[in-house]
Every structure is written in structure tokens, then in C-alpha cells.
TrEMBL record:
UniProt keywords, alphabetically: Oxidoreductase
InterPro entries noted in UniProt: Nitroreductase, Nitroreductase-like, Nitroreductase_HadB/RutE
Pfam family, one: Nitroreductase
Biological source species: Endosaccharibacter trunci
The name this protein goes by in its record: Malonic semialdehyde reductase
Enzyme Commission code(s) on record: 1.1.1.298
The UniProt record lists the keyword Metal-binding: no
Superkingdom per UniProt: Bacteria
Record domain Nitroreductase: where: 20-170
Organism lineage: Bacteria, Pseudomonadati, Pseudomonadota, Alphaproteobacteria, Acetobacterales
Length: 192
């Protein structure tokens, strides 16, 4: 990967302060998922589920669940993604991991299944952030919201459980403030 790609994915990528009104086409969202699904998950379990809220009305439904600091960014984003997981992801295991009876690993232990689903869907949400940046989208990940309300408002009929939100679109102008500090290698890493 060249330096320009690293700049796009990490060094120059910033949370947008404002969004343009440029829509994110459905073909871009499909291309985004086609990249995300290729990222590795344990046992190829692929528990993440993504709900793309494209209309202002669909995003507006989440207003009661959003923390005050996220309302404007979430509602103004051309697309708001609910990154969720399917607690019964293991029902797809015979197709996703066909060389073993992988379904039984999770079906017999719902605590283990939930832990696996949450962890791997979180990883897949991270893939979505990087894939979106690679496709030229700006990204605003959010955790300031009430998961139970999101699940009740949007996900009640399907049984999926929300994890975090991602605003997708195209930033208007540069970031509003300098990049926040990051921990140094010696503070965040341990070599044994």
C-alpha cells in the first residue's frame, strides 16, 4: 500500500464537521458491503448486519435515541448506518463454514454466541469505516445513543441488536478542529 492510500485511510481521514447534500448512491453502498464482507471474522461467522438509513425521515426516527452531541451529525448525514449483529448468526454457519459442524459451537451456548456476534460485528464495523474511506466517503462513527431505543424503533421486527452508528457522506470543508491527541506507542503497547 502506498503512502497516498495510508493517508486516505488513516493520516488525513477525519470526522467531518458538516456534510454536503451530495447523496450516497445505492451502488456505492452495495460496493461498500461487497468490500466489508471480505474481511475476516472468526470461523467466517459474519454476524454483522447493516441498516442504511438513507432518507431524512428514516434518520429522524432515531432522534429520541441520539445523545444531544450527535443529533445534527446523525440527521444531516446523507446515510446513517446502524451497525448491528444478529444473535442467531450461527444459523448461517452451515453455508459459511461448511467443512465443519460450526453451528453447534454457538447454538448450544447463547452467551458464547452473543459474545462472538458482538466482537465480530464490531470488527466488521471497523472494516466498514476503512472501506468507506477507501471509496472516497467521509465517516462519522458514533456511540452516543441509546441502543435499546434504536433496537425498539428500527430493529424490533428482525431481532438484530445495535452496536454503533456510522454517518456516511461527503464532508463540507475541512475539520472543525485539530486532530485530538493520540496515545504514543509506549503508552498503548506492550512488547513481551
Amino acid at each position: 500500500m502506498d503512502e497516498a492510500a495510508l493517508d486516505t485511510l488513516f493520516r488525513n481521514a477525519r470526522t467531518p464537521g458538516r456534510w454536503t447534500e451530495t447523496p450516497v448512491e445505492q451502488t456505492v453502498l452495495q460496493q461498500l458491503y461487497e468490500l466489508v464482507k471480505l474481511g475476516p471474522t472468526s470461523g467466517n461467522c459474519q454476524p454483522a448486519r447493516f441498516v442504511f438509513l438513507q432518507s431524512r425521515d428514516s434518520r429522524e426516527r432515531l432522534r429520541p435515541a441520539l445523545s444531544a452531541g450527535n443529533v445534527e451529525g446523525a440527521l444531516d448525514a446523507p446515510v446513517l448506518v446502524i451497525v448491528a449483529h444478529d444473535p442467531f448468526f450461527f444459523d448461517n454457519m452451515p453455508r459459511l463454514h461448511p467443512d465443519e459442524e460450526a453451528r453447534s459451537w454457538f447454538a448450544a451456548d447463547h452467551g458464547f454466541a452473543e459474545e462472538t456476534a458482538f466482537r465480530n460485528a464490531s470488527i466488521q464495523g471497523g472494516y466498514m469505516i476503512l472501506a468507506a474511506r477507501a471509496l472516497g466517503l467521509d465517516v462519522w462513527p458514533m456511540s452516543g445513543f441509546d441502543n435499546h431505543k434504536v433496537d425498539e424503533i428500527i430493529l424490533a421486527g428482525c431481532g438484530w441488536r445495535s452496536n454503533f452508528l456510522i454517518g456516511l457522506g461527503y464532508a463540507e470543508g475541512g475539520p472543525d478542529r485539530p486532530r485530538a491527541p493520540r496515545l504514543g506507542f509506549d503508552e498503548a503497547c506492550m512488547l513481551l
